[in-house]
Amino acid sequence: KAGVTQTPRYLIKTRGQQVTLSCSPISGHRSVSWYQQTPGQGLQFLFEYFSETQRNKGNFPGRFSGRQFSNSRSEMNVSTLELGDSALYLCASSVTGANYGYTFGSGTRLTVV
Amino acid sequence: AQKVTQAQTEISVVEKEDVTLDCVYETRDTTYYLFWYKQPPSGELVFLIRRNSFDEQNEISGRYSWNFQKSTSSFNFTITASQVVDSAVYFCALSDLPSSGGSNYKLTFGKGTLLTVNP
Hints:
Chain A has strands at 5-7, 10-13, 19-24, 31-38, 42-50, 53-57, 64-68, 74-78, 87-94, 103-104, 108-112. Chain A is mainly beta. In chain A, a hairpin with a 5-residue loop joins β7 and β8.
């Protein structure tokens, strides 16, 4: 059974640019969440998508957005990149229902220069 | 607001030693979930255990054991007879209740504890 797949693994962007990260959940998982991990702030919740709808959002500026497609694949977008956006972005998927834990991908390491 | 505190930033042990990772949480919810995740150098968060707030039964799984004490808001994790492969960052996490519509919960993570097991 394939795990959560995130692409690309590494990315280098320039300040002011925008970036799109992709996440393919485990087959059958309909919930996808995104987390940002930085040395200073640790792991922080960005948002969660379920059935193509954003269900939950963390405390991040509007430059951070996402979407989910009908096949449950998800993308997150960061516009007008800042140096502080450099982080490991982790995607996690889960089946529907409240009693299941998340399975995380290996993440996308974004470096903004 | 929810908060998870892992007071130990780094722990270094010699192989075969037992090691306990501490986790203290804060929440106003009466029903919640607690988790431990492991993050090896590859970056992926590996799920270890989930506990709900009304199940204080402690558990042992192989070399791993967990001690959940609601009275002290603690959810500690012990590795018995540690091995070099246990070296990783360990995260304790707390979730709130799921939002409406069948979606899942969001996780509030602690800062993590870097465990180094030396041969």
